[in-house]
Amino acid sequence: MIPISIIIPAYNEEKSIARAIKSATAQSLKNIEIIVVNDASTDKTADIVSTFASNDNRIRLISHNTNMGLNQSRLTGLSIAQGEYIQFLDADDSLEKDTLERLCSHAKSHNLDIVMMGSQHYHKYLKFKITIFYPDKYFKKTICNSIEFIPNLLCKLGFPLSLWDKLYRRELLNSAWTTAEHEFYGEDMLTNLRIFNADASLGWIDYIGYNYTTGGASKKSATDTWNDDKKLYNRCCSVLEEINASTPENMHALACGAVNSFIYSISQQIVNPFASTRKCKEWIKAELQSDFWDNVIPYLGSSHTAICNRDAAGTLEIARQHLNAHRLSFLALKFLMM
Fold first, then answer.
1. Residue 210 — φ and ψ, nearest 5°?
2. 214, 239, 262: which is the final residue of a domain?
3. Are 25 and 162 members of one domain?
4. 251 and 127 in one domain?
């Protein structure tokens, strides 16, 4: 059996797909397959992949006739994959050379269903890297049960929500992931909720192996992002109910995640030198009086007093404290996204 299948979904990625494929073909683990799912691209993505495939029989190109979205493209790749494990790679990202060898060795030696690795922002123009996530912050044991990490997925405090920084056993994905989330925002998090709820063995490697490319990012405002976060909260509630995981611990973590997203959105507004403090205060006050918090506050318990009391001034002060504590991180991320 092939140890690992790399699945690369691609839609109009003619400028970046070559780098992603090169990072896959250059892996020190050679016995792999590389599946590129062309999601009805209208540029030269398919032609570029075809050229690579003609020179490397490990590469397979699958094309959709109509655009079906990121996660459906991943599921298309999964449906034909032959590897024992699956590694997802976005078409504008890349892998370090030893990534798959390290992941596979660790997965096999410990009989793991999921192996997590570190990741880093890679600026495509300025060519520098900043660490996004390092797993030793969360792992006190070599092997864990994935279910115990669902609260970490929900509370949004640095635990990675994405699919691409984890190696998954293919059998696990086939059994736990049968429906593609069609949310553009948060679809990886929703998918991982299903996967982590499957009672899988999970471990990690002491290695930063994934380069998440930034530069030329979305121009969404902080308020637009917050509106997306509210929609994601409601969708998470539905998924947790669907998979019978609406435990008090998970619902509390999800509610705390909503607070963290709200504070982050406020911090983004504060750090903007062109933003109006008065308008920010008015926005906070209006948001705290919205029906959204009627569903969230009961799960917060005694935590987050300012939010529970719908105290706009107190919430703004918390956001300011958060910004002061993480100002360098905010500025670095803002610089990366330029």
1. -120, 130
2. 214
3. yes
4. no
Token pair in block for residue 212: 């998440």
Q: Are 228 and 185 in contact (CB under 8 A)?
A: yes
Question: pTM to 2 decimals?
Answer: 0.92
The pLDDT value recorded for residue 126 is: 55
CB 80 within 8 A of CB 60: yes
Task: Report yes or no: 203 and 114 within 8 Å, Cβ to Cβ.
Answer: yes
Looking at the structure, do residues 137 and 272 belong to the same domain, yes or no?
no
Instruction: Please check whether residue 104 is in contact with residue 3, taking contact to mean a CB–CB distance below 8 angstroms.
Output: yes
Distances (CA, A) of 304 to 42, 61, 316, 322: 48, 50, 13, 13
Q: Domain total for the chain? A: 2
Q: Are residues 105 and 230 in the same domain?
A: no
Alpha carbon distance 266, 285 (integer Å)? 11
Claim to verify: residue 151 and residue 291 sit in the same structural domain: no
Identify whether residues 142 and 60 lie together within a single domain: yes
Angstrom distance (rounded) from CA 316 to CA 306: 9
- pLDDT of 336: 47
Q: Which value, to the nearest 10 degrees, does the dihedral of the CA atoms of residues 131, 230, 289, 304 take? A: -40
**Packed helices 222-242 and 248-271: angle between N→C axes, nearest 10 degrees:** 170
Domain containing 209: what range? 4-214
Q: Are 114 and 167 in contact (CB under 8 A)?
A: yes
Q: What is the distance of C-alpha 321 from the center of its chain?
A: 26
Distance CA 188, CA 204 (A): 19
Mean pLDDT per block of 10 residues along the chain (338 residues) reads: 96 97 98 98 98 98 96 96 98 97 98 95 70 79 93 90 96 92 84 96 95 68 90 96 97 97 90 80 96 96 93 94 70 51
152 lies in the same domain as 266? no
**Residue type at 172 in one-letter notation:** L
Check whether residue 198 and residue 93 sit in a common domain. yes
Residue 4, both tokens: 């690992």
